[in-house]
Amino acid sequence: MTQWQPESQADLAALLREASEKSEPVRTEGSGSKRHWGGPPAQGALLKTTALTKVIEYEPRDLTICLEAGVRYRDLEPMLASHGQMLPLDPPYRPEATIGGIVAAGVSGPRRRLYGGIRDQVIGMSFATMEGKVVSSGGKVVKNVAGLDMQKALIGSYGTLAVITQVNFKLAPLPESTRTFVLRTPNLSALAAARNQVLAGVLQPAAFDAVNAAAASRLGLGTTPCLLLRANGRERVLARYAAELPGAEAIEGEQEAALWKAIESFAESPRIVAQAGHANPALEQVLASAPGEAVARAANGVAYLALESRQQAADWLASTKGKPWSRMILKAPPEDALALELWPEPGPDFDLMRQLKSTFDPSALLNPGRLYGRI
Q: How many domains does the chain have?
């Protein structure tokens, strides 16, 4: 198997052009940590971005940074922290995950409640096309109107349109302190009611997650469903959370960090992981459909369900058919991914996605099938 590891975006673009001229399929990855996400990789030359590790530009005063795609998230965190800043993406596979891979997979973690998803944090991008061109979109400042937002199309595209080479992010200041409040509930109906009460109140947590009883047990939180609220700010702000959440357990320090690390890495251990996108009122219904552990962004309408086997995944897809929420198999080993319908109902925007694929990669050589077997 041919493997490429270019050290510049110009070299990477040249390799794509050469592959296109030979009609040779190309599959791309960073560290390969999310190799089992999306659809199974097709055959073809493997192009890795792990040699693109430069910090192109960092302006702490502007709260912006431009990074090459192969920069690892774990290496970025301490550099930003030394300036009192952070990039709150909270990706799984934190030790291995590269910036390009995180963006290509569209990963957003628990703190999207306050800081937005990855689409909100990316302000610009450079990418290489199968024609061998390097294209830039967006800019390096938060308030920028230059160019079209082509980078939005590449976020979550699993490298099926072009290869991300550089990404510009807006950053956030590190909070003065954090504290997490664990609100235990007797059942999912009570959890949904408590979630609604929080949403109707004054609290604005950085992260707001819900876990079912199975997930709560593994996380050491007890044997009933829980709401988890992560608060940022000064002591008087954190005290307000305690006052608004009577009966909640407050945790901080190493215990708090370990809890959120376990939640961020939820998708790493299960053989198969399903993702459901739903309206907020459907939270109870989605969690109730889970045959095992489940974690949800309680205010953002995204849930992740652990599935133990191909049969359990097929049963879940069958039992939830027709529900008013989107469903997909986010992660599965290749042998299971080939046997399952990973994205049963792509939705009304799918035709537009196919048009984008045809525009960016008319010969369908780049990561074919990687977008949940559909593109």
A: 2
Residue 150 lies in a domain: yes
CB atoms within 10 A of CB 85: 17
- Find, among 58, 159, 55, the residue nearest to 100 by Cα: 159
Identify the domain containing residue 292 by its residue range.
Answer: 178-251+272-331
The residue-averaged pLDDT of 52-67 equals 97
Exposure of 63 in the CB half-sphere (CA atoms within 13 A): 14
20 SS3 class? helix
**Is 87 within 8 Å of 109 (Cβ atoms)?**
no
What Å distances lie between residue 158 and 38, 103, 164, 303, CA to CA?
A: 7, 9, 10, 20
Q: Regarding beta strands 26-29 and 45-48, do their DSSP bridges make them parallel or antiparallel, or are they unpaired?
A: parallel
Instruction: Kindly state the average pLDDT of the residues 62-78.
Output: 97
Are 119 and 204 members of one domain?
no
As beta bridge partners, residue 126 has 136, 166
| Structural domain includes residue 338 | no
HSE-up (13 A, CA, CB side) for residue 176: 6
* C-alpha dihedral sign at 249, 94, 44, 362: positive
Phi-psi region of 84 (alpha: psi -120 to 50; beta: other; left: phi over 0): left
Q: State residue 148's pLDDT score.
A: 56
Q: Are residues 192 and 317 in the same domain?
A: yes
Residue 313 covered by a domain? yes
Evaluate whether residue 367 is within a structural domain.
no
Strands (E) in the chain, as ranges, are 3-4, 26-29, 45-48, 55-59, 64-68, 85-86, 122-128, 134-138, 163-170, 172-173, 178-184, 207-211, 226-232, 249-251, 272-277, 294-297, 302-307, 326-331
DSSP-derived 3-state class of residue 92: coil
**What's the mean per-residue pLDDT of the chain?**
95
Q: What pLDDT was estimated at residue 141?
A: 57
Q: pLDDT tens-digit profile of 102-116?
A: 999 999 999 999 999
First to last CA, the chain: 23
